[in-house]
Amino acid sequence: MVVKELSWVVVRIKLVSEISFMLVWKGQIYTIKANEPTELPDELVEKILKNKKLSWIKKVE
């Protein structure tokens, strides 16, 4: 199931161990980089965690 307001903008692979991408959600652009914590709204975090295709993204406290 794809969330309508979550749209992928850029997927960029720099090195095997470093993946970064940008996503647009409710008019805001967020950049997510591998091995770097990213501040995201709680509602967006829940949508990402429920998406099986994004199971490699983990929530950290």
Q: What is the spatial order of strands in the main beta sheet?
A: 1-2-3
Count the E strands. Answer: 3
Reported for the largest beta sheet, the result is:
3 strands, antiparallel
How large a portion of the residues is in β-strands, by DSSP E? 35-45%
Q: Whole-Å distance between the termini? A: 27 Å
Report Rg.
Answer: 11 Å
Average pLDDT, to the nearest integer?
71
Number of separate structural domains: 1
H/E element string? EEEH
Describe the structure.
This protein has one domain (6-54). It has one helix and three strands. It has one helix at residues 42-50, and strands at residues 6-15, 18-25, 28-33. It has a three-stranded antiparallel beta sheet, with no helix packed on it. A hairpin with a 2-residue loop joins β2 (18-25) and β3 (28-33). The protein starts with 5 loop residues before the first strand and ends in an 11-residue tail after the last helix. The model is unreliable at 9-16 (pLDDT under 50).
